[in-house]
Structures are given as C-alpha cells and as structure tokens.
Amino acid sequence: MARIQPSFERPDRYFDVNALGTKNILLCAKKHGVRRVVYSASSSAYGDQAVYPLTEKLPLTSQAMHPYGSTKRMGEMLMRDMGTATHGPQTVCLRYFNVFGPRQTTTADGPYATVIGIFLDQLRQKKPLTIVPDGNQRRDFTWIGDVVHANLLAGASKNVGQGEIINIGAGENHSIWDVARLVLGVPKETPTDELVRTHKCAMLPPRKGEVFQTLADRTLAKKLLDWEPAMRFTDGIAELKSLMRL
C-alpha cells in the first residue's frame, strides 16, 4: 500500500499488506521455484536525512516518520532475510523516488493523491492549484516508463539478486512551485505571490510525515543495472498535459 498520510489512519492495514504481504509473496515464490523477486521499495525508507543526494549506504534514521516508510523498510529486510539468505528466491529492492506518469492518482482518489496528478486535475477543472505548505519542498520526480525499465533490468541482470537496495530516481529535484509553474504554463520566473494573488494557486496547511526534499544518488543503478532515466521532467509534464488535452 502506498501514500504516507493514510498510513497514520490505518497502520495495521499497512503492516498487513506491506510487511506480511511481502512475507507471503516470498514464501509463495520459494514454494513454486520462482527465480527472482523484484521488490518495489520506497525512498520513504530514508526518513528525514541531513545529507543529499541520498545514497544506499546512508544509515537510516531511527524513525521512518510514518507507518508507510516503516513497513516498506520491513519489506526490504524480509527480501534480504527470506530470500537468498535462507535459500529462497533471488531478491533485489528498488527504492522508487516520487513516481509520476499516466494513470497516476488524482483528486478523484482523495486528498492524498500525488501532487502532479492533483495539479493536472485542478487545471482541467479550472481550479486553483493547492500548495502544501509553502511550496518550497523539493521532490525527485521519476517518470513511470523509466521505473518500468529499471524493473525489467533488475529482473534480468546478473549483477543483482542478493537483496541489493538500489535507488531509482531522476537524480534531480524540483520545488512544488516549479511543478505548479510548469503545469500552469507560466514562466519559471513568475513570483509565487503573483500566482496566489491571481488565484492560480491556493495555500494549504502542512501535512504530517512529509520530508523537505528527496534526491536520489543513482550511481549504483548505473553500475549494477546500467540504468539511467530517459525522460526529462519538463518533457514528462508536457506529455501528461498533451494526454489530458490541457
């Protein structure tokens, strides 16, 4: 199960799906002779760090800040301990960074959908884009097609299979204001107060469990998987707007 805020409301459900569900998949894979399991991990496992970009060797913070991050960490540990360490399937964990693209969640999926999906839906409905909390936080947005490619490489590569943890991110980040300007199609120099004053954007209070920024070091992904992102962030936004005819 994904999303941070709902995990505060249903930590038991997140544990059942993300931890126990992962255990069940590994047991089933071992029983039926599955060669390798690629785990969809999350950059949320890092918690709030002081050093960026985030490398896989960084010690994790004592608390993941929310049940979602905690249960995704548990999944990583299960991949290692119930995989090759106990004669189970080969395993590899891909820590996704803020995946976006077609079929992403929108306002129809509730208030905790992905920010790009929310913004595009609000633009379509001619509503102000909602900025939480001040728009200065930064995210490493990664195109879904690039994430799919990383999974295919991880499933086939001879360089992995021992429970490795690998960042899958673009290696650059953008502020929420940057995203809003791209979605609105206004110059990147447009002042934030002008966007609020003209009702193109509206401010909302902060949300629990959010870190200030995410930024992946993708050195290991290049080394082990020969993976690099192909889609530029600006091109990804343009493609989504074209698909939605905005």
UniProtKB/TrEMBL annotation:
Source domain of life: Bacteria
Organism: Candidatus Komeilibacteria bacterium RIFCSPHIGHO2_01_FULL_52_14
One family name in Pfam for this protein: Epimerase
InterPro entries on file: Epimerase_deHydtase, Lipid_A_modif_metabolic_enz, NAD(P)-bd_dom_sf
PANTHER family registered for this protein in UniProt: BIFUNCTIONAL POLYMYXIN RESISTANCE PROTEIN ARNA, UDP-D-APIOSE_UDP-D-XYLOSE SYNTHASE 2
Lineage of producing organism: Bacteria, Candidatus Komeiliibacteriota
Domain NAD-dependent epimerase/dehydratase: 4-169
Name of protein: NAD-dependent epimerase/dehydratase domain-containing protein
